[in-house]
Amino acid sequence: IVAREWHKENSVIDIKGIPLGGNTIQVIGGPCSVETRQQMDAAARFVKAAGCRLMRGGAFKPRTSPYSFQGKGVEGLEMFRRAADAQGLPIVTELMDVRMLDTFLEWNVDVIQIGTRNMQNFDLLKEVGRTNKPVILKRGMSATVSEWLMAAEYIAAGGNHNIIFCERGVRSFETYYRNMLDVTAIPVLKKETHLPVIVDPSHAGGKAWMVPALSRAAIAAGADGLLVEMHPKPCEAWCDADQALNPDELKNLMVELKGIAQVL
Ligand code: PEP
Ligand code: MN
């Protein structure tokens, strides 16, 4: 179902009236994690002011250490929903556990993010496949393109064709940066699937200063959008502080991208 052979034209995913895919570029901005009400209210205002039309933020965080901040959970969903609603921004947030799916639907999460660590959590994929919610499927950190396509197929097979691929860098030998952004995967995915492909430059570089260059590369290579971390005060972020843009940097990025493509 996800294959280009099956559907020749580019699919456009409708997110509360906002098109993802097709001839426009969407930039999804927001913090790594939902922290506090004030942080989310400020973040939503800055995301909106920068010109982004969708907001990200994790309430359930897949942390490497069980002793690290694990996210605000359901309370975080509520904080996110209220902050984003005040700015009219649809919300993108990660679902890690199939047992939280009903809660996500109750809070009207607009886009369900499946993180790199869950790309092949087939039971989770099957369950989101039974909903009609748009799903961002991040690439597993060592997943091949065909494994990634098949993971998407699990969602599509259940009837949900609202799938967005997200390249976020892969594991490599290099230690200078967090993950190696696989720019090659962008044209490959665009050839193999009719579904939109976005790029997360934040988790690829792992440093804020790398984000503009990786973003430009992604858009120039044909990506349909970006998923970018921005924090009102990056140095105070509870998670992924090094890679968060500040509000001005997000604004500048949006201006730069408009020079490359039509950014809505
Ligand atoms: C995230 O987007 O916050 C995240 C945890 O990303 P990934 O699953 O790509 O590591
Ligand atoms: Mn993060």
Automatic annotation (TrEMBL):
It comes from the Bacteria. One of its GO terms (molecular function) is transferase activity. This is 3-deoxy-7-phosphoheptulonate synthase. The chain holds residues 71 to 334 of 338 of the full protein. The keyword Hydrolase does not apply. GO terms for biological process: aromatic amino acid family biosynthetic process. Keywords: Transferase. Residues 18-257 form the DAHP synthetase I/KDSA domain.
